[in-house]
Amino acid sequence: MQLDTLYQEIILDHYKRPKGRGLREPYDAEAHHVNPTCGDEITLRVRLDGGADPRVVDVSYEGMGCSISQAAASVLHELLRDKSLAEALTVHDAYTEMIGSRGQGQPDGELLEDAVAFAGVSKYPGRVKCALLPWMAFKDAVARAAD
Ligand code: ZN
Known about the structure:
The protein has helices at about 5-15, 65-80, 85-100, 110, 125-145; strands at about 30-35, 40-50, 55-65. It is α+β, with helices and mostly antiparallel strands.
């Protein structure tokens, strides 16, 4: 099987059977982001525990739009939930770097797990915003939660 085909299947699987979808309570902060070029929307909530080294207790979300944007939200939920906030932000940075790499990056599969499936998106400037949408909403929500 071609790697690209495998990656497409991972994305389609998350799109058809999204993990952790739905807005849940309680939560610390919410962010709503839109990608007007594609019509994608996401509302994302984060729940952190209040420790000195906070942990991401939950990431819940609701959205609509293309398969890439919606699958990206599902992967984000699966990847960042139950991580420390510091670890989640490390994964976030690796993901945004991969998506911004224009196909030149060497993504860290151990760190990014299913999210490496989005590496190919970096070759398509028109889809980059789709893949980043939920991740930008996550960063925004975390910044609000810290206020
Ligand atoms: Zn899109």
